[in-house]
UniProtKB/TrEMBL annotation:
Residues 63-299 form the Protein kinase domain. It comes from the Eukaryota. CDD domains: PKc. It comes from Exaiptasia diaphana (Tropical sea anemone). This is Protein kinase domain-containing protein. The lineage of its organism: Eukaryota, Metazoa, Cnidaria, Anthozoa, Hexacorallia. ATP binds at K90. InterPro entries: Kinase-like_dom_sf (IPR011009), Prot_kinase_dom (IPR000719), Protein_kinase_ATP_BS (IPR017441), Ser/Thr_Kinases-Pseudokinases (IPR051681). Keywords: ATP-binding, Kinase, Nucleotide-binding, Transferase. GO terms for molecular function: ATP binding; protein serine/threonine kinase activity.
Length: 299
């Protein structure tokens, strides 16, 4: 009897070993095919080239002073000279070279007049730098926020055109499978180009791929903090019910348009803003739909 039981035990152990071996082999195959499938689903995740390294010595101060044009939690931005051109140099603090390379790679993969042109990075030593074209009006860096506060600029046709140019730049970004995730009036600079004011969207530190953006659960305290301090983050992201999406970019863009309408009573823009900041992401218009509305407005 004992002998028979012992034989049965050995038999079962052997079968279990074989089954485990099969399961592990199938698991490896599944992971392999899942990775292949992911690569096919996200062609924009292709191998990224290292960004161009700039020689630090080629960067000079403008008029022998450090001209600070912006300061944030992750560093500051200075107006400098690079091989005879005026450039904006983002200085990073407490940031990995990987994060700087990601921001630089994203910008260099995009080619649109409403998005910045990048010259390269300095990531061989601290502080890490990102060097891009400088955009300004009469030599001064002017964000949409500053233009509104300073009561600068123009009337309804000009603001409508700025909103239209921004919409085209965001639609282009979305068509490349990217979401900006940090659209706000401080992250759009205005450029005087041949007498026409053109917006350029900056700050690609939070950009995500549409296909891999993830839902994030925030504590109730953090949710409250975001609602107060980061109003441009869409409510579904703060609640943790949806991942960042093209619709959450549309929400943030809607708040920028609302801000313009806070200073100027532009009925055409106000109507678009109301649609963009709809509480339900699925009910917000796409950037292409916004462009069509604005184009029809201007006819
Ligand atoms: N290319 C640029 N041309 C002109 N001003 C710029 C440029 N890039 C950034 N700035 C200015 O520097 C500020 C900070 O830059 P940003 O990239 O938004 O950094 P942060 O991640 O610290 O917010 C902007 O709000 C803007 O005023
Ligand atoms: Mg910024």
């Amino acid at each position: 009897m004992v002998k028979r039981l012992e034989e049965q035990r050995r038999d079962i152990t052997k079968k279990l070993e074989i089954t485990t071996k099969h399961a592990n082999s199938n698991k490896r195959k599944a992971v392999h095919f899942w990775k292949l499938w992911r690569q096919q689903q996200a062609p924009q995740n292709k191998i990224r080239r290292e960004p161009r390294q700039i020689e630090r010595d080629n960067l000079k101060k403008c008029r022998s002073t450090d001209e600070l044009i912006g300061e944030g939690r992750f560093g500051c931005c200075k107006k400098m000279m690079y091989r005879g051109r005026v450039v904006a140099v983002k200085h990073f603090k407490d940031c990995s070279d990987k994060a700087v390379h990601n921001e630089a790679a994203t910008i260099s993969e995009l080619d649109h007049p409403g998005l910045p042109f990048i010259f390269g990075v300095c990531t061989k030593q601290q502080p890490f730098l990102l060097v891009m074209e400088y955009y300004g009006i009469n030599g001064t860096s002017v964000t949409i926020a500053r233009a509104l506060k300073g009561k600068m600029l123009f009337g309804q046709p000009e603001w409508t055109d700025v909103v239209l140019q921004c919409s085209k730049a965001i639609a282009y970004l979305h068509s490349k499978g990217k979401i900006h995730c940090d659209l706000k009036a401080d992250n759009i600079v205005l450029q005087d180009s041949d007498g026409v004011t053109r917006p350029v969207i900056i700050d690609f530190g939070k950009v995500k791929d549409i296909t891999t953006a993830k839902t994030k659960k925030l504590s109730l305290v953090d949710q409250e903090f975001y609602r107060k301090r980061h109003k441009h983050i869409a409510p579904e992201i703060v609640r943790g019910t949806h991942p960042p999406s093209t619709a959450s970019d549309v929400y943030a863009f809607g708040l920028i348009i609302s801000l313009i309408c806070h200073y100027y009573k532009f009925e055409n823009l106000r109507r678009i803003a109301v649609q963009c900041i709809h509480g339900t992401p699925e009910k917000r218009p796409s950037m292409d739909a916004i462009i069509t509305t604005l184009d029809n407005n201007s006819v």
